[in-house]
Amino acid sequence: MRSRSSFGAKDTKRLVFIACFVFFLFCLIVIQYYKLQISEGNKWRKIASAQHHLDVTEYFMRGGFYSNTDIKEDHPDQKVPFVVEVPKFHLYIDPNSIDVNDKLIIAKKLFEYFNFTSSEKENIFCEFFKKSRSRKIISWIDKDKKDEIIKWWQNFSKEKKIVRNAIFFVGDYKRCYPFGPLLGQILHTVQDQKDPISFQSLPTGGLELYFNDHLKGQLGRRIITRSSRHPLDTGKVIDKPQDGSDVYLTINHYLQAIAEEELDKGVKIANAKSGWAIMMDPYTGQILALAQSPTFDVTRYRDYFNDESLKETTKLKALVDLFEPGSIFKPITLAICLKANDELEKMGKEPIFYPDEKIAASNGNFPGRSKPIKDARVHKFLNMNLGIQKSSNIYIATLVDRLINTLGEKWYQDSLIELFGFSKKTGIEFPFEADGFVPQVGKFYPNKAPQWSKSTPYSLAMGYNILVNSIQIARAFAIIANGGKDVQPTLFKKIVKNIDGKERVILDNTKNFDFQKMRQIINPEHCKIIKKATKYITKIGGTSRLADIPGYSEAGKSGTAEKIVDGKYNKDIHISSFIGFVPVEKPSFVLMIVIDEPEKKYVPGLGSMQLGGVCAAPIFKDIATRALKYLGVAPDDPFGYPYPDPRRDAAKADWADELKQLSELYKSWNER
To answer: What span, in angstroms and rounded, lies between the C-alpha atoms of 399 and 485?
Structure first.
């Protein structure tokens, strides 16, 4: 044995070398540890997390649309949805966690729960062989179906020793329509597939598009751990989703159902191409109902957009379709002529006419017209009430002739635009509203023809040579009905967002509304004159007796306009309408009915089906009658019922004396 003293310098060097080498290895380990844990820590944590965890999107509830349930004071205060979100589920698989031998078995079993086509089955089966930890294979699964699949999978995965969340579900929400196709053209819907980047819903149009920024929510995130011990739905929510805001409409579900039902009946009776109805509060501008026939079933939106014959049905014609209004424009012309009287009075000049003035109405020759204007029958003399009652083209053209010869054509043109807003969008909350067209003095069409010619004022007086949308006309009649105040058409009352379990109004469309502070557009006395004149329309001697509502007073006007086909007016194709308000003194609503292309046929005892007073007026009556009953509006004409109703008393009925006097006046001027 070597003695301690024999431990030499050579051994010392060897020991030092070994120590240095061990220290060097230790330093390498420390450096590598620093690299893995500090410098590249995030990288390796992400790799490990990707192997054991899955980042899953947590979907939010898109905001819904709700009915106007406080339209009546005694109406139950409850939320009635037009559109809501219902929970659905998407089925995902983790192909890397499933053995090749089990993939076919799993796929076949899943196919048993659904009615897939051969091509759909093939596409789903291909997903099992993608190199991925997460593949969505089936969308929009009901909760009951999901529970069935989970029950089978728990036993199967245990038997095959497959991690339990090799298939898993992600919750989502899908649009549901409690009233079916009600409000289809107004609401529209969202596409089945969401935006692949933002995961936001993609609106097809309508209010879904207009209010999209409010309806959208914010996605959340959830982490799922992959292991045989973790069930399908466990996971930690790291970002809570935020739901979208709800929009409360001005439209009432009951009134909308009435309007759609009666309109659909009327369109079928007239064998028309289509039709629409607008019910508006004349004081607030709130749209209480907006119906269209045929309806648009948004649950089948793909069928409509993929079929050219159905695509037209998806449009909200009351706002995007322009038309020449015809005779329903005459009360508006009358309002402008009365306004002209006021202007002339300020100048110290004589008015262009007096309401009771006896005016010759048999000569239809006017400047610039190659053919004379004609009425449905020849009238020798008419005053304002008779002119409106008989819907005389010659009478209203005579007033406009006097107007332009005193105040000028430009004044007439400006009045159409500035008083009633024609050729301008109303600003109602809906995308793609058409603004309309009013010919301009001194301007030209692309073909160099003048927009305004000598004959233009007379065409405008009768509702021709002007293009309007139906909301513009409804607004004009609302101004007359409410006593001349400006009114802004609107479709929503408020927008509400749920914040931490509490509903907060983030936008109130009714706040600070004061009808008395609204701009006065028409002299209130003129509105009374026009109201009285249009009351004759639905009574004996008027053009729209079918619009007469038993027990109530109503005022209105029918219109029948030829449509332009291939650049020419076609006498066989018309767009017909009726618009009115009820009761007359304090109207509950303005109601407009438009029938597009009613069938050309004779109705015994009534006349042509194409007349607005024949095809549109009855729909007005039917909708208004049911709506007044629902709203609880008391009858203001208790004796104005048809024979043989026991409540009838022709002598005491509203407007009976006035009708008798007007009838005698007409006979004295025209039949003697």
So the answer is: 24
pLDDT digits 0-9 by tens, 138-152 = 999 999 999 999 999
Inside any domain, residue 12: no
299 phi/psi in degrees, rounded to 5: -70, -15
CB 190 within 8 A of CB 62: yes
- The residue segments making up the domain with residue 226 are 52-245
**288, 251 Cβ separation under 8 angstroms:** yes
Q: 310 and 199 in one domain?
A: no
Q: What does pLDDT average to in each consecutive run of 10 residues of the chain (672 residues)?
A: 57 78 80 72 61 66 93 76 92 90 92 92 92 88 93 91 86 91 96 86 95 90 59 60 92 97 97 98 97 96 94 96 97 97 95 96 94 94 97 97 97 96 96 96 92 96 97 98 97 92 91 91 97 96 95 96 92 97 97 97 94 97 97 92 86 90 95 80
Name residue, tokens 């992959």: 226
Over the stretch 174-214, which tens digit does the pLDDT of each residue have?
A: 999 999 999 999 999 999 888 888 889 999 999 999 999 99
| Domain endpoint, select from 180, 214, 245 | 245
Tokens at 522, concatenated:
């028409």
In a domain, 486, yes or no: yes
Using only the alpha carbons of the chain, give its radius of gyration: 37
Residues 357 and 209 in one domain: no
Query: How far apart, in whole angstroms, are the C-alpha atoms of residue 225 and residue 234?
Result: 8
Contacts of residue 90, defined as CB under 8 A and 6 or more positions apart, other chains included, come to 136, 138, 139, 140, 141, 169, 170, 172
Instruction: Write down which residue in 245, 270, 292 finishes a domain.
Output: 245
Considering the domain architecture, whether residues 532 and 623 belong to the same structural domain is answered as yes
Residue 21 lies in a domain: no
376 and 519 part of one domain: yes
Same domain, 497 and 646: yes
Q: Is 505 exposed, middle or buried (0-12, 13-18, 19+ CB in 10 A)?
A: middle
